[in-house]
Amino acid sequence: MYINNPFAELSASISPAVMQAYVVIMIVLVVAGTLIEVVHKGSAKYFFQNWRKSKSKGAKQVGGGELVSIAIKTGLVDILASGEFCNARRRLSHLLTMYGFVIYVVTTAVMIFGYPTPAMPAPALLPQLWWLGGLMVCLGGYWFWFFIRVDVLAEGNSPFRVVRADLFILSLLASVTLGLIWAFVQAKGAAGANVLFGLYIIATTVLFGSVLWSKFAHMFFKPAAAFEKRVSHALGSRSNLPAPADKPEQFGIARGQPRHY
Q1: Is the Cβ–Cβ distance between 214 and 168 less than 8 Å?
Q2: Selected residue with higher pLDDT from 193 and 240
Q3: Cα–Cα distance between 56 and 261 in angstroms, integer?
Q4: Around Cβ 5, how many Cβ atoms within 10 Å?
Q5: How many CB atoms lie within 10 A of CB 151?
Q6: For residues 110 and 127, what is the distance between their CA atoms, to the nearest angstrom?
Q7: CB 246 within 8 Å of CB 71
Q8: Which of 127, 117, 112 is nearest to 4 (CA)?
């Protein structure tokens, strides 16, 4: 079961061309949703305004070599290692979900486009990585949802309380969970595989089609924000930090240890 391409088995009832077209449509929805959010919310404009403000208020200049070094550090620390999370549990949960999602999406695309039918068997490693990626998403995602969220851990709210900001994580977990269950049921030849596949497609469409309303696009904005922050510090500019962060004693406030969840 774990070495079989579930999408190749599906090709007996759904044309590989249809599956491939669906993947392309999902990619288009993500790109379009991200671009619309950039224009609608002015994310790019805000980024470049901060960039110019940091350069104008900076105490020194940053050369091309230092910019490359900052970009590398941003990639290694802020993106690949999720260095913005101070809480170890939150960071581990995020890394499991992030890397699991990347593995899951990439192997899905490779199996659908490269090995669409049983006549073109996929290497056993691909389905195994697909299962591993999906399980990583579930482990990191459910751990975050039930035990790490701020409103659950710090505020004592029910883990079943849902707000619009939860659309991304919930649709992600629904899509991956239903995908794994569908693949398992299909491999066992049990009844209900078609229904599960339909639910899987609905959840996946919500995940990739709701970029404009969910936090999906944040994964593209965060690297740029992290890079801009590091450049601002290198320039000696602290224009984006509130006064209490620099000199809290002016307000009679003693800074305590920051709390991150």
Answers
A1: yes
A2: 193
A3: 34
A4: 26
A5: 15
A6: 10
A7: no
A8: 127
Place of tokens 């949703």: 33
Q: What is the DSSP string of 125-167?
A: HHHHHHHHHHHHHHHHHHHIIIII-HHHHTT---TT---GGGH
Question: What pLDDT is attached to residue 36?
Answer: 83
Within 10 angstroms of residue 24's Cβ, the number of other Cβ atoms is 12
The Cα 145–Cα 152 span in angstroms is 8
Token duo for residue 88: 């170890």
For the entire predicted model, the pTM comes to 0.76
> Exposure string (b/e) for 62-100, b if CB count within 10 Å is 16 or more?
beeeeeeebeeebeeebbeebebbeeeebbbbbbbbbbb
CA-based nearest residue to 47, from 211, 241, 229, 238: 229
Does the pLDDT at position 6 exceed 50? yes
More confident residue, 153 or 206: 206
| Residue 129, both tokens | 């990585």
| pLDDT (average), residues 141-162 | 75
Q: What is the rounded distance in angstroms from the CA atom of residue 120 to the CA atom of residue 5?
A: 10
Q: Which of 64-68, 110-114, 226-230, 244-248 has the highest mean pLDDT?
A: 110-114
Q: Provide the b/e sequence for 194-231 (b: ≥16 CB within 10 Å).
A: eebbebbeebbbbbbbbbbebbbbeeebeeebbbbbbb
